[in-house]
Design goal:
This protein has 81 residues and is mostly helical. Helix content is 78%, strand content 0%. The longest helix is centred in the middle third of the chain and has 27 residues, at 31-57.
C-alpha cells in the first residue's frame, strides 16, 4: 500500500469515527460521559486537520475550489428562510 492510499484511508477512518462520536454526543444521557466524548472528538478533529494539511501539501487530496460570492449569497438566502 502506498502512502497516498494509506493517508486517504486514515482520513476516511477518522471521518467515520467523528461521525460516530458526534452521534453519540447528541444522544448521551450522562454529562461526564458526554464531556469525555467531546474531548475525544476534539482530539480526532485536530489529528484529522493535521493529516489533511499533510495530504493537501503532498497533493494526495485536492479540495474543491472555494465557492464564489454568488454561491455564498445563494446559500445564505436558503439558510436564512
Amino acid at each position: 500500500m502506498n502512502e497516498k492510499i494509506a493517508t486517504n484511508d486514515i482520513l476516511s477512518g477518522i471521518n467515520s469515527a467523528l461521525n460516530i462520536l458526534t452521534y453519540s454526543i447528541q444522544h448521551a444521557n450522562n454529562k461526564e460521559f458526554r464531556d469525555t466524548l467531546i474531548q475525544f472528538r476534539n482530539k480526532f478533529e485536530n489529528v484529522h486537520w493535521d493529516l489533511y494539511l499533510i495530504a493537501k501539501e503532498k497533493q494526495y487530496y485536492v479540495p474543491a475550489a472555494p465557492g464564489g460570492e454568488s454561491d455564498v449569497q445563494q446559500v445564505k438566502q436558503v439558510a436564512c428562510k
